[in-house]
Amino acid sequence: MIHLLSSCYSQLRYTLCVWCMLCTAFDTEQIEAMVLKGDRPPLDAIEGPAELVSFATRWIPLCWHESPDERPTFDGKYNVVK
Fold first, then answer.
1. Whole-angstrom distance, CA of residue 29 vs CA of residue 70
2. Number of structural domains the chain divides into
3. What's the predicted TM-score (pTM) here?
């Protein structure tokens, strides 16, 4: 299971799930269409307390880098979060 979670694809999916929890302005089909085109959902649609929005809008783009090799590892995400 840990091996599966460490894949770059899983990292992108994980942060898409996080984004979905913080934003209710888009449905699943809209998000899927954006991602399949190579786009990412808009960060300005994230809702919540200012501190959470500030953190999420800095952290999520790192995980959505076009180059999978440039995305942080799950260990790296943990270090950012803690």
1. 27
2. 1
3. 0.62
